[in-house]
Amino acid sequence: MNVQRRLDEVGMACSSCHQASNTPGPHRPPGAPRWGLAPREQVFEGKTPRQLCEALKSPDSNGHRTLEAIQHHLLDDPLVQWAWAPGEGREPVPVPRAEFASAVRIWIESGGLCPEDGQ
Ligand code: HEC
User: Fold this and answer.
1) To 5 degrees, how large is the angle CA 73–CA 75–CA 78?
2) pLDDT at residue 119, as a whole number
3) How far apart are CA 16 and CA 4, in angstroms?
């Protein structure tokens, strides 16, 4: 599907079609609470691992979240959890949830250390 931010601008909210949970059946809209695109400042593309790490920690680009709130968002938010249960005909994200959760906890416990560029 060609997902575009422009939909909102033309007055069609994602929630016109997407519900709070997956609509059963092939090619039906997936869903989760507060379905929508992440804000522009949270785009991952083109960032080095260090830039991505810094952006995740920066209140200006992370929705004013503390490290604790980032952990809660990544591990408990139903919209993020949807990635491991995307509904019929879709593949979950390639990293197993338990592995992701463990990596998030280790990172948070480190105080949110960021890699040097090139690592
Ligand atoms: C007019 C109805 C409609 C609107 C509005 C809409 N979607 Fe969808 N969306 C669908 C349908 C139907 C599917 C399932 C398509 C399929 O599986 O073939 C879908 C699928 C998706 C998928 C899964 C894509 C994939 O690769 O399987 C994402 C992500 C998505 N939409 C995000 C959004 C976002 C974010 C918005 C708002 C900016 C939005 N959609 C607005 C109908 C809509």
Assistant:
1) 70
2) 60
3) 14
CA 67–ligand 1 middle distance (angstroms)? 30
CA angle (60, 15, 26) in 5-degree steps: 115
C-beta of residue 84 within 8 angstroms of C-beta of residue 76: no
Ligand 1 pocket list (CB less than 6 A): 1, 3, 7-8, 12, 14, 16-18, 27, 29-30, 36-37, 89-90
Give me the tens of pLDDT residue by residue for the chain, a chain 119 residues long: 677 777 777 778 899 999 999 999 999 999 999 999 888 878 889 999 999 999 999 999 998 999 999 999 999 999 999 999 999 999 999 999 999 999 999 999 999 999 998 76
Q: How far is CA 9 from CA 4, 13, 14, 58, in A?
A: 10, 9, 11, 27
Query: Cα 108–55–101 angle (5° rounding)?
Result: 35
CA of 7 to the centre of ligand 1 (A): 11
Where do we find the tokens 């490290």? 67
